[in-house]
Specification:
Layout lengths: L1 E11 L2 E11 L4 E5 L6 H8 L7 E6 L2 E2 L5 H7 E4 L3 H4 L5 H11 L4 H15 L14 H13 L5 E5 L7 H13 L3 E5 L3 H7 L2 E6 L2 E7 H6 L1 H6 L20
Parallel strand pairs: 3-8, 3-9, 6-7, 7-8
Antiparallel strand pairs: 1-2, 1-4, 4-5, 9-10
């Protein structure tokens, strides 16, 4: 579904952010992208969406090279939930935000509204349909942002720091929602407890390269590995719980 093949990138000459980075994410995988500040997580997300040019190497999404000719198809395949929901929710109401992409993809008003209603019902968010975005809470807005992306019916959902600034109740709601999604998922986050609760596999970035790639439970239990890459064990490992039983 997503493939990076020897990708290098730099914002400034001679200051590489990514170095010969290669990995593959298969359809249906749930993958956590972790690393200390400056490791390159956000850069990877922007590159796969074509928001930054791939300077060296190749990136493919759903079999298509990421280039100007394929951007429309690629951005339909990848639903991107931004770290800042205020930057994503730009229409007056949740309903108008959710209708925007389906209508622009050619669906009739009736078809788009049917899709919107189905997503809201699936997530239990019917009460938000006609709410004004500036009048809902941060947690409600994060859920509405996820609903907006799901209304696009992407093949994969990409989330940048999905738990940031959420209270414990809303955080658990987001975790349950992510676990219920039946599609390829890539979560970039510093919240290692959330990654443990939602992801089967982890990509650990350090210095623009992969320091580790493997089962989430193995990597997130490896204290020496995490500390060597400026990270710490998830809080929950003081009393480990099975996946899906999210703690606050």
């Amino acid at each position: 579904m997503i493939e990076f093949d020897h990708v290098s990138f730099a914002y400034e000459p001679d200051t590489p952010v990514l170095r010969e980075l290669s990995f593959r994410i298969a359809p249906g995988e749930s993958v956590g992208l972790i690393g200390a500040n400056g490791a390159g997580k956000s850069t990877i997300l922007k590159l796969m969406l074509g928001l930054l040019p791939c300077l060296e190497g190749e990136i493919r999404v759903d079999g298509l090279p990421v280039n100007k000719q394929n951007l429309t198809q690629i951005r339909r395949a990848l639903g991107f939930v931004l770290q800042d929901s205020d930057s994503q929710m730009f229409m007056p109401t949740v309903f108008e935000d959710m209708m925007f992409a389906p209508r622009n993809y050619g669906l009739s008003k009736e078809e788009a509204e049917t899709r919107v209603d189905a997503v809201l019902a699936e997530l239990g968010l019917e009460a938000l349909k006609h709410r004004y975005n500036h009048k809902i809470s941060g947690g409600e807005k994060r859920m509405a942002a996820i609903a907006t992306i799901l209304a696009m019916e992407p093949k994969a959902i990409i989330m940048d720091e999905p738990s940031i600034a959420l209270d414990p109740v809303n955080r658990r709601t987001v975790i349950r929602t992510v676990n219920a999604l039946r599609m390829t998922k890539l979560l970039a986050s510093h919240d290692l407890d959330m990654i443990l609760d939602t992801c089967d596999r982890v990509l650990l970035l350090s210095g623009g390269r992969l320091a580790a790639d493997g089962p989430a439970e193995e990597i997130l239990r490896d204290q020496a590995l995490l500390e060597a890459n400026r990270m710490e064990l998830p809080f929950c490992l003081a009393g480990y719980h099975p996946r899906g039983q999210a703690k606050a």
